[in-house]
């Protein structure tokens, strides 16, 4: 440990929490509203992590940009309505709290970089009593989404951490590509929405199989970088 500031920057959906069923439900409601039938759940899981309009565009490439925006708005409304009715379940993955505790005990700052809206992220963190634990919260509301490096760069600017002192933790190739584009290290997690082989091919520096293994992988990469 060098005394220099260090940051573990977590993805949310598929990394901290399992939100796939809530996401698929809201996307299905949006498609039905627009007469599109129902989306393939597997395809919906594939786009988790992208900013919302980009995710809809990936699912509906033959539709116009205006339609993408309209479906995205319907998705947001459907998700918000489900949350108001108490129907949204986004449980933490096993072992995640242990890793958050271990990283904080080691003096590592915690942050989030997610394709989720700020409203949605705030709701998740509040639900699990985690709001106070993250010092920087980056969402695609405020600029380009993954795999653009912008969210990492904003997090570094907010925390004063150098590139060598940050590790991105995520479950999709979008997370790993974002980290590579920002020239920072990354840990891929096996329990999310993209395959481990895809995370490895995208350039993840480490792969972990359990939530409690995240802290060790992050600390190992930081030590390797002299942090």
Please describe what this structure looks like:
By secondary structure, the chain is α/β, with parallel strands linked by helices. The protein folds into 2 domains: 7-18 and 90-224, HAD superfamily/HAD-like (Rossmann fold); 20-84. Helix content is 47%, strand content 12%. The chain has 10 helices and 6 strands. It has helices at residues 20-33, 41-47, 52-59, 65-84, 96-105, 118-127, 150-159, 173-181, 196-202, 214-224, and strands spanning 7-10, 109-114, 136-139, 166-170, 185-189, 206-208. A 6-stranded parallel β-sheet has the order 3-2-1-4-5-6, sandwiched between helices. β5 (185-189), α9 and β6 form a beta-alpha-beta unit. α3 (52-59) packs across α4 (65-84). The longest helix has 20 residues, at 65-84. It is globular. The mean pLDDT is 95.
What's the arrangement of secondary structure elements?
Blueprint: E1 7-10, H1 20-33, H2 41-47, H3 52-59, H4 65-84, H5 96-105, E2 109-114, H6 118-127, E3 136-139, H7 150-159, E4 166-170, H8 173-181, E5 185-189, H9 196-202, E6 206-208, H10 214-224
Parallel strand pairs: 1-2, 1-4, 2-3, 4-5, 5-6
Helix pairs in contact: 1-4, 3-4, 5-10
Brief characterization of the structure:
The chain is an alpha/beta fold. The chain contains 10 helices and 6 strands, in the order E-H-H-H-H-H-E-H-E-H-E-H-E-H-E-H.
């Amino acid at each position: 440990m060098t005394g220099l500031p260090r940051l573990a920057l977590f993805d949310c959906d598929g990394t901290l929490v399992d939100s796939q069923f809530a996401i698929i439900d809201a996307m299905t409601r949006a498609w039905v509203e627009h007469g599109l039938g129902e989306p393939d759940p597997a395809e919906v899981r594939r786009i988790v992590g992208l900013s919302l309009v980009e995710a809809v565009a990936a699912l509906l490439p033959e539709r116009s940009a205006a339609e993408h925006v309209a479906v995205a708005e319907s998705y947001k409304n459907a998700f918000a309505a489900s949350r108001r009715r108490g129907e949204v379940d986004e449980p933490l993955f096993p072992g995640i709290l242990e890793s958050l505790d271990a990283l904080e005990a080691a003096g590592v700052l915690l942050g989030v970089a997610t394709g989720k809206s700020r409203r949605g992220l705030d709701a998740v963190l509040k639900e699990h009593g985690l709001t106070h634990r993250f010092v920087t919260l980056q969402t695609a509301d405020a600029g380009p989404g993954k795999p653009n490096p912008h969210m990492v760069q904003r997090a570094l600017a907010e925390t004063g951490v150098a590139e060598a002192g940050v590790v991105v933790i995520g479950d999709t190739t979008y997370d790993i590509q974002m980290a590579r584009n920002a020239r920072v290290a990354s840990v891929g997690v096996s329990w999310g929405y993209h395959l481990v082989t895809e995370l490895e091919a995208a350039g993840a520096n480490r792969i972990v199989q359990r939530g409690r293994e995240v802290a060790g992988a992050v600390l190992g990469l930081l030590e390797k970088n002299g942090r």
